[in-house]
Protein backbone atom coordinates (compact mmCIF):
# COMPACT_ATOMS: atom_id res chain seq x y z
CA UNK A 1 0.00 0.00 0.00
CA UNK A 2 1.85 3.06 -1.26
CA UNK A 3 1.97 5.77 -3.87
CA UNK A 4 3.23 4.29 -7.16
CA UNK A 5 3.37 7.26 -9.56
CA UNK A 6 2.71 10.91 -10.33
CA UNK A 7 -0.46 11.47 -12.38
CA UNK A 8 -1.26 15.18 -12.70
CA UNK A 9 -1.12 18.61 -11.07
CA UNK A 10 -4.02 21.07 -10.80
CA UNK A 11 -3.60 24.86 -10.93
CA UNK A 12 -5.93 27.83 -10.75
CA UNK A 13 -5.29 30.65 -13.24
CA UNK A 14 -7.15 33.90 -14.03
CA UNK A 15 -7.49 33.07 -17.74
CA UNK A 16 -7.94 29.62 -19.27
CA UNK A 17 -7.40 31.13 -22.71
CA UNK A 18 -3.92 32.39 -21.76
CA UNK A 19 -3.10 29.04 -20.19
CA UNK A 20 -4.25 27.14 -23.27
CA UNK A 21 -2.17 29.32 -25.58
CA UNK A 22 0.96 28.81 -23.49
CA UNK A 23 0.72 25.05 -23.01
CA UNK A 24 -0.28 24.39 -26.62
CA UNK A 25 2.86 26.22 -27.68
CA UNK A 26 4.80 24.16 -25.15
CA UNK A 27 3.57 21.01 -26.96
CA UNK A 28 0.71 19.70 -24.81
CA UNK A 29 -2.74 18.76 -26.12
CA UNK A 30 -5.73 20.54 -24.52
CA UNK A 31 -8.91 18.67 -23.61
CA UNK A 32 -11.80 20.96 -22.65
CA UNK A 33 -13.93 19.90 -19.69
CA UNK A 34 -17.06 21.49 -18.22
CA UNK A 35 -15.27 23.55 -15.53
CA UNK A 36 -11.61 23.14 -16.39
CA UNK A 37 -9.01 22.68 -19.10
CA UNK A 38 -6.98 19.47 -19.10
CA UNK A 39 -3.69 18.92 -20.91
CA UNK A 40 -2.15 15.65 -22.05
CA UNK A 41 1.10 14.69 -23.73
CA UNK A 42 0.73 13.68 -27.37
CA UNK A 43 0.23 9.92 -27.60
CA UNK A 44 -0.37 9.43 -23.86
CA UNK A 45 -3.85 8.66 -22.57
CA UNK A 46 -3.48 10.39 -19.22
CA UNK A 47 -4.20 13.82 -17.79
CA UNK A 48 -0.97 15.65 -16.87
CA UNK A 49 -2.11 19.15 -16.01
CA UNK A 50 -5.54 20.54 -15.10
CA UNK A 51 -6.25 24.28 -15.16
CA UNK A 52 -9.25 25.76 -13.41
CA UNK A 53 -10.30 29.39 -13.52
CA UNK A 54 -9.88 31.44 -10.34
CA UNK A 55 -9.23 34.98 -9.16
CA UNK A 56 -5.50 34.42 -8.68
CA UNK A 57 -2.74 32.09 -9.81
CA UNK A 58 -2.28 29.33 -7.27
CA UNK A 59 -1.52 25.66 -6.73
CA UNK A 60 -4.73 23.65 -6.34
CA UNK A 61 -3.97 19.91 -6.07
CA UNK A 62 -1.79 16.96 -7.02
CA UNK A 63 -2.78 13.40 -7.95
CA UNK A 64 -0.89 10.15 -7.45
CA UNK A 65 -1.53 6.55 -8.46
CA UNK A 66 -1.51 3.95 -5.68
CA UNK A 67 -1.07 0.19 -5.47
CA UNK A 68 -4.03 -1.39 -7.24
CA UNK A 69 -6.89 -2.31 -4.93
CA UNK A 70 -5.39 -0.41 -1.99
CA UNK A 71 -7.82 2.53 -1.68
CA UNK A 72 -9.90 0.89 1.12
CA UNK A 73 -6.71 0.15 3.06
CA UNK A 74 -5.49 3.70 2.41
CA UNK A 75 -8.77 5.07 3.76
CA UNK A 76 -8.36 3.12 7.01
CA UNK A 77 -4.69 4.09 7.20
CA UNK A 78 -5.48 7.80 6.84
CA UNK A 79 -8.24 7.59 9.43
CA UNK A 80 -5.79 6.00 11.90
CA UNK A 81 -3.40 8.89 11.28
CA UNK A 82 -6.16 11.44 11.86
CA UNK A 83 -6.17 12.67 8.25
CA UNK A 84 -9.73 13.64 7.25
CA UNK A 85 -11.02 12.85 3.76
CA UNK A 86 -13.05 15.28 1.68
CA UNK A 87 -14.85 15.79 -1.61
CA UNK A 88 -12.99 16.71 -4.78
CA UNK A 89 -12.48 20.48 -5.22
CA UNK A 90 -14.72 22.22 -7.75
CA UNK A 91 -13.66 21.45 -11.31
CA UNK A 92 -11.20 18.71 -10.28
CA UNK A 93 -11.42 15.19 -11.75
CA UNK A 94 -13.75 12.96 -9.76
CA UNK A 95 -12.77 9.61 -8.31
CA UNK A 96 -10.28 8.17 -5.86
CA UNK A 97 -9.93 9.63 -2.39
CA UNK A 98 -9.16 13.26 -1.56
CA UNK A 99 -7.29 14.64 1.45
CA UNK A 100 -5.33 17.76 2.38
CA UNK A 101 -1.65 17.70 3.28
CA UNK A 102 -0.48 19.68 6.36
CA UNK A 103 -0.12 22.89 4.33
CA UNK A 104 -3.59 22.64 2.81
CA UNK A 105 -2.88 21.32 -0.68
CA UNK A 106 -5.45 18.83 -1.91
CA UNK A 107 -4.05 15.36 -2.68
CA UNK A 108 -5.92 12.86 -4.87
CA UNK A 109 -5.05 9.15 -4.57
CA UNK A 110 -6.30 7.12 -7.53
CA UNK A 111 -6.50 3.39 -8.19
CA UNK A 112 -5.06 3.49 -11.70
CA UNK A 113 -1.76 2.84 -13.39
CA UNK A 114 0.16 5.67 -15.05
CA UNK A 115 -0.25 5.36 -18.82
CA UNK A 116 2.79 4.45 -20.88
CA UNK A 117 4.36 7.41 -22.74
CA UNK A 118 4.57 7.23 -26.50
CA UNK A 119 7.58 5.40 -27.90
CA UNK A 120 10.27 7.18 -29.91
CA UNK A 121 13.25 6.32 -32.05
CA UNK A 122 16.48 7.31 -30.33
CA UNK A 123 18.74 9.61 -32.31
CA UNK A 124 22.39 8.94 -33.07
CA UNK A 125 24.95 10.89 -31.04
CA UNK A 126 28.72 11.08 -30.85
CA UNK A 127 29.51 10.82 -27.14
CA UNK A 128 32.81 9.87 -25.52
CA UNK A 129 34.32 6.95 -27.45
CA UNK A 130 31.03 6.15 -29.19
CA UNK A 131 30.65 7.52 -32.73
CA UNK A 132 27.15 6.62 -33.91
CA UNK A 133 26.75 9.54 -36.33
CA UNK A 134 29.37 9.86 -39.06
CA UNK A 135 29.24 12.19 -42.09
CA UNK A 136 25.78 13.37 -41.14
CA UNK A 137 24.80 16.92 -40.18
CA UNK A 138 22.44 16.47 -37.26
CA UNK A 139 21.06 20.00 -37.54
CA UNK A 140 19.44 19.08 -40.87
CA UNK A 141 17.27 16.55 -39.02
CA UNK A 142 16.41 18.66 -35.99
CA UNK A 143 15.96 22.16 -37.42
CA UNK A 144 12.20 21.60 -37.86
CA UNK A 145 11.81 19.62 -34.64
CA UNK A 146 9.00 20.72 -32.35
CA UNK A 147 9.02 19.71 -28.71
CA UNK A 148 6.55 16.96 -27.91
CA UNK A 149 6.61 16.21 -24.17
CA UNK A 150 6.17 12.47 -23.55
CA UNK A 151 5.10 12.58 -19.90
CA UNK A 152 5.10 14.66 -16.74
CA UNK A 153 8.32 13.53 -15.08
CA UNK A 154 8.29 15.40 -11.78
CA UNK A 155 7.11 18.48 -9.93
CA UNK A 156 8.52 20.47 -7.01
CA UNK A 157 6.45 22.50 -4.57
CA UNK A 158 7.38 25.40 -2.32
CA UNK A 159 6.85 24.78 1.39
CA UNK A 160 7.26 26.66 4.67
CA UNK A 161 8.20 23.35 6.35
CA UNK A 162 10.18 21.25 3.85
CA UNK A 163 11.02 18.38 6.15
CA UNK A 164 7.64 18.36 7.87
CA UNK A 165 6.09 17.88 4.43
CA UNK A 166 8.69 15.26 3.58
CA UNK A 167 7.74 13.37 6.75
CA UNK A 168 4.03 13.50 5.90
CA UNK A 169 4.41 12.22 2.34
CA UNK A 170 6.84 9.47 3.41
CA UNK A 171 5.12 8.25 6.58
CA UNK A 172 1.51 8.80 5.51
CA UNK A 173 1.53 8.20 1.74
CA UNK A 174 4.53 5.91 1.27
CA UNK A 175 6.84 7.98 -0.92
CA UNK A 176 10.58 7.52 -0.40
CA UNK A 177 13.42 9.99 0.04
CA UNK A 178 15.86 10.05 -2.90
CA UNK A 179 18.12 12.93 -1.85
CA UNK A 180 17.99 16.00 0.30
CA UNK A 181 20.09 19.10 0.82
CA UNK A 182 19.56 19.94 4.45
CA UNK A 183 17.54 23.12 4.78
CA UNK A 184 17.24 23.57 1.00
CA UNK A 185 15.45 20.79 -0.88
CA UNK A 186 13.96 17.31 -0.52
CA UNK A 187 13.46 14.90 -3.46
CA UNK A 188 10.94 12.04 -3.22
CA UNK A 189 10.40 8.96 -5.39
CA UNK A 190 7.88 6.14 -5.81
CA UNK A 191 10.39 3.28 -6.04
CA UNK A 192 12.33 1.89 -9.00
CA UNK A 193 12.29 4.32 -11.90
CA UNK A 194 12.71 8.08 -11.74
CA UNK A 195 15.21 9.57 -9.30
CA UNK A 196 12.33 11.74 -8.05
CA UNK A 197 8.75 12.53 -9.02
CA UNK A 198 8.04 15.05 -6.27
CA UNK A 199 9.79 17.25 -3.75
CA UNK A 200 9.91 20.48 -1.77
CA UNK A 201 11.89 23.72 -1.69
CA UNK A 202 11.79 26.24 1.18
CA UNK A 203 9.65 29.36 0.98
CA UNK A 204 7.40 31.49 3.14
CA UNK A 205 4.31 29.59 1.96
CA UNK A 206 3.15 26.70 -0.19
CA UNK A 207 3.10 26.93 -3.99
CA UNK A 208 4.26 25.43 -7.26
CA UNK A 209 7.95 25.76 -8.12
CA UNK A 210 8.05 23.87 -11.42
CA UNK A 211 6.75 21.07 -13.60
CA UNK A 212 9.24 18.97 -15.60
CA UNK A 213 8.20 17.11 -18.76
CA UNK A 214 10.26 14.41 -20.42
CA UNK A 215 11.17 14.72 -24.11
CA UNK A 216 13.00 12.35 -26.42
CA UNK A 217 16.44 13.94 -26.27
CA UNK A 218 18.60 17.01 -25.89
CA UNK A 219 17.88 18.23 -29.45
CA UNK A 220 14.15 18.32 -28.79
CA UNK A 221 14.79 20.05 -25.48
CA UNK A 222 16.78 22.82 -27.16
CA UNK A 223 14.39 23.23 -30.09
CA UNK A 224 11.43 23.39 -27.74
CA UNK A 225 13.13 26.15 -25.76
CA UNK A 226 13.76 27.99 -29.03
CA UNK A 227 10.07 27.75 -29.99
CA UNK A 228 9.00 29.16 -26.63
CA UNK A 229 11.56 31.97 -26.86
CA UNK A 230 10.26 32.87 -30.32
CA UNK A 231 6.78 33.06 -28.78
CA UNK A 232 7.94 35.71 -26.32
CA UNK A 233 8.88 33.50 -23.36
CA UNK A 234 12.53 34.48 -23.19
CA UNK A 235 13.30 33.93 -19.51
CA UNK A 236 15.18 30.73 -20.32
CA UNK A 237 17.71 28.91 -18.17
CA UNK A 238 18.87 25.33 -18.80
CA UNK A 239 15.86 24.65 -21.04
CA UNK A 240 13.48 26.02 -18.43
CA UNK A 241 10.96 28.77 -18.97
CA UNK A 242 8.55 30.76 -16.88
CA UNK A 243 4.90 30.29 -17.77
CA UNK A 244 2.29 33.06 -17.27
CA UNK A 245 1.51 31.83 -13.75
CA UNK A 246 5.18 32.53 -12.85
CA UNK A 247 6.26 29.02 -12.00
CA UNK A 248 8.87 27.14 -13.99
CA UNK A 249 8.16 24.63 -16.71
CA UNK A 250 11.06 22.55 -17.97
CA UNK A 251 11.93 19.78 -20.38
CA UNK A 252 14.18 16.88 -19.43
CA UNK A 253 15.76 14.29 -21.69
CA UNK A 254 14.81 10.65 -21.26
CA UNK A 255 16.85 8.87 -18.61
CA UNK A 256 17.61 5.30 -17.60
CA UNK A 257 15.39 3.89 -14.81
CA UNK A 258 17.26 3.15 -11.62
CA UNK A 259 16.71 2.32 -7.98
CA UNK A 260 17.03 5.65 -6.11
CA UNK A 261 19.28 5.71 -3.06
CA UNK A 262 18.74 8.30 -0.35
CA UNK A 263 21.61 10.65 0.33
CA UNK A 264 21.95 13.64 2.61
CA UNK A 265 24.00 16.48 1.17
CA UNK A 266 24.98 19.13 3.67
CA UNK A 267 27.09 21.45 1.55
CA UNK A 268 26.09 24.68 -0.17
CA UNK A 269 23.68 24.41 -3.12
CA UNK A 270 26.42 24.18 -5.73
CA UNK A 271 27.57 20.89 -4.21
CA UNK A 272 24.50 19.17 -5.65
CA UNK A 273 24.25 18.56 -9.39
CA UNK A 274 20.83 17.67 -10.78
CA UNK A 275 21.42 15.65 -13.95
Structure description:
By secondary structure, the chain is of the alpha/beta class. The protein has a single domain, classed as 2,3-Dihydroxybiphenyl 1,2-Dioxygenase, domain 1, CATH 3.10.180. The protein is built from 5 helices and 18 strands. The protein has an 8-stranded mixed β-sheet. Strands 16-17-15-11-14-13-12-18 form an 8-stranded mixed β-sheet. Strand 3 and strand 4 form a beta hairpin. The two termini are 30 Å apart. The C terminus is likely disordered.
What topology does this entry show?
Elements: E1 3-13, H1 16-26, E2 28-32, E3 36-41, E4 47-53, E5 58-66, H2 71-80, E6 85-86, E7 97-100, E8 106-110, E9 126-127, E10 130-131, H3 138-142, E11 151-159, H4 162-171, E12 176-181, E13 185-189, E14 198-202, E15 207-215, H5 218-230, E16 240-242, E17 248-253, E18 263-265
Parallel strand pairs: 1-4, 5-8, 11-14, 12-18, 15-17
Antiparallel strand pairs: 1-5, 2-3, 3-4, 6-7, 7-8, 9-10, 11-15, 12-13, 13-14, 16-17
Number of domains: 1
Per DSSP, what share of the residues sits in E-state strands of 2 or more residues?
A: 35-45%
Name the CATH architecture: Roll
Write the H/E string, N to C.
EHEEEEHEEEEEHEHEEEEHEEE
- Which sequence of strands runs across the widest sheet? 2-3-4-1-5-8-7-6
* Percent of residues in helices: 10-25%
As a whole number of angstroms, the C-alpha radius of gyration is 19 Å
